[in-house]
Amino acid sequence: MNASDTPFRLEGKVVLVTGASRGIGKAIAVEAAEAGAEGIVLAARRPEALEAARDGIAALGSAVECVVADMTDEEAAEAMVARAVDRFGRVDVLVNNVGGAPFKVPLPDIRADGWRKTIELNLTSVFLASRAVMRNWRSAPGGTGRNIVTVGSSASFHGRPALSAYVSGKHALVGLTKTLARELAPSGARANLVAPHLVETDLTAAQQQREFRDRSIAQIPMGRWAEAKEVARVVRFLASDAASYVTGMSLLVDGGHES
Ligand SMILES: NC(=O)c1ccc[n+]([C@@H]2O[C@H](COP(=O)([O-])OP(=O)(O)OC[C@H]3O[C@@H](n4cnc5c(N)ncnc54)[C@H](OP(=O)(O)O)[C@@H]3O)[C@@H](O)[C@H]2O)c1
């Protein structure tokens, strides 16, 4: 069965994806378009990459709006949601995808500003976008079908040497997701987290030396890294009404690494 034939449809939904200009975020936006989303909002910092992503996604039939925004910036997060609401009247699904590990440094050598920036990128960004969307939802009641999907990591569940700030931010997203689930449940809205292990994208390009790949692949029962679309399909399931009774959950997409 082709992925676009699955029952996990997003027709009539407006989907906002942060960090959507490349990698997993772009794959999620493509998947949302293939699932029939009515409108898709793509957010990232660099306009050229966003515009390039827009062209491919719009060709799949969804209306697309690009928003240049730094997701660690409070005002930018509020303005992003306001733009989405101006264009489409609402946001039904927020995908918090922005994140990353800007450096690999043992804890005694981490500078405090580097720690703070990594926490801002991986945790505060999710707080800010979720708050902006939830404020809008509070002002426009009618929750069923609304949901938030956050992209965590296998580092949401395991320590990694020299990645303490990234790991701490990604672990915190599990608790944030559980709390959002409980705050949203009375309105019928949901919140879940998808936790990939290693995925073929620009973020991991620097790591793609043979030695690292061979070592990492030896630990993955399926013997390969994920493709971004394999993560995007899980986001699509959680975002769709097929997951209408799934909330507060973290779903590993790791080729059996945890097993
Ligand atoms: N790749 C992996 O192996 C892997 C594994 C586990 C988890 N993850 C998680 O998956 C998510 C996506 O990773 P990826 O590999 O797809 O990353 P990526 O290829 O580096 O793409 C990151 C995206 O986010 C945007 N972005 C970065 N910082 C931003 C900011 N401050 N504000 C707004 N947009 C920003 C980038 O565009 P601009 O630079 O133009 O802003 C880009 O669109 C992250 O949360 C990451 O931790 C990835």
From TrEMBL:
Do you know which SUPFAM superfamilies this protein is assigned to?
NAD(P)-binding Rossmann-fold domains
What highest taxon heads this organism's lineage?
A: Bacteria
What single Pfam family name could you report for this chain, choosing any that match?
A: adh_short_C2
InterPro entries xref list: NAD(P)-bd_dom_sf, Sc_DH/Rdtase_CS, SDR_fam
Which is an annotated GO molecular function term of this record? oxidoreductase activity, acting on the CH-OH group of donors, NAD or NADP as acceptor
Q: Which UniProt keywords apply?
A: Oxidoreductase
Q: Name one GO biological process term.
A: fatty acid elongation
Q: Which residues form a coiled coil?
A: none
Write out the similarity annotation. Answer: Belongs to the short-chain dehydrogenases/reductases (SDR) family.
Q: NCBIfam families this protein is in?
A: PRK07231.1
Could you identify this protein by its name? Answer: Short-chain dehydrogenase
Q: Which organism is it from?
A: Streptomyces rapamycinicus (strain ATCC 29253 / DSM 41530 / NRRL 5491 / AYB-994) (Streptomyces hygroscopicus (strain ATCC 29253))
